Amino acid sequence: MRLCLGSGADGLVQFSPSLLTFVATVVAVTASGALMPGPLFAACLLQGTKGGAKSGFMMSVGHTLVELPLVMLMGVGISSLLNLSGFLTFVGLIGGSALVVFGILQLRYVKRGNFSTEPIERTTTRRSSLILGIGLTGLNPYFIVWWLTFGIGLVVQAVELGALLGVLFMYVSHVWMDYAWLTGTAYLSARGKTILKAKGYRLLLIGLALILMYFGVGFILRTVFQFNILP
After folding, report:
1. Which partner from 1, 129, 141, 197 sits 20 to 30 angstroms from 189, CA to CA?
2. Which H helix or E strand runs over 13?
3. pLDDT per position as a tens digit, 13-43
4. Is residue 180 part of a domain?
5. Residue 6 β-bridge partners
6. Residue 116: its pLDDT value, please?
7. Position 111 in a domain
8. Backbone φ, ψ for residue 7 (5° rounding)
């Protein structure tokens, strides 16, 4: 596969089916990380009560300042490893297994029900949203683990699609969800509302968990056993 756009008979630019499938995979896997409660999400609720949507947007910018260099560095490193025998099989096995395990853990998390989507009360803290976005991303070990387990499969596919241009394309397909979620969360938090009621949020997390497990099994079957169940 290569990252390219074809031109149809009618002269309109068309995306190849493989590219659209890749974007769908990125969005599905990204949602698992973006929508799960964590320190960045909690801080966004907090900052949103003071600064509204702008706070969420600036936290997203801070998140990007840490994440984008990491992803591009991963792309550079992976480019030199693609020709190693067994590398893709190893990545598929590790990344796929991580997705399945994370899906199971997410289902257990939903079953316990110890989460809330309610806005937090206002605080007098004066830390800027940009610095919070940088700090809560760079100092969060689970962020690194996510990219080295779930995310590495996406980076490998992106390099196969179009080297570093493919990685950049993958990142754009990924990061818009962070901006939409954090900005929307902060906006509604400022107005004392929630994005989803508890029941709807629970159903969303269950759906995401099942999708993660599907992609995880698909990655393992495709890379280890050369059997494809993915679209």
Report:
1. 141
2. strand 13-14
3. 334 447 788 888 888 888 877 776 666 777 7
4. yes
5. 14
6. 55
7. yes
8. -115, 125
Buried b (16+ CB within 10 A) or exposed e, 124-155: eeeeebbebbbbbbeebeebeebbebbbbbbb
SS (H, E, C) 91-153: HHHHHHHHHHHHHHHHHHHHHHCCCCCCCCCCCCCCCCHHHHHHHHHHCCHHHHHHHHHHHHH
pLDDT at 180: 92
The CA distance from 144 to 118, in Å, is: 27
Radius of gyration of the chain (CA): 19
Residue 137 domain boundaries: 31-115+128-224
Distance between CA atoms of 89 and 71, rounded to whole angstroms?
A: 20
Q: What is the pLDDT of residues 125-180, one digit of tens each?
A: 335 788 888 887 877 666 777 787 778 888 888 888 888 888 999 999 999 999 99
Q: Is the CB of residue 24 less than 8 Å from the CB of residue 231?
A: yes
Tell me, yes or no, if the pTM score tops 0.70: no
What's the number of domains the chain is made of?
A: 1
Count the Cβ atoms, other than its own, within 10 Å of residue 79.
17
Q: Which amino acid is at 23?
A: V
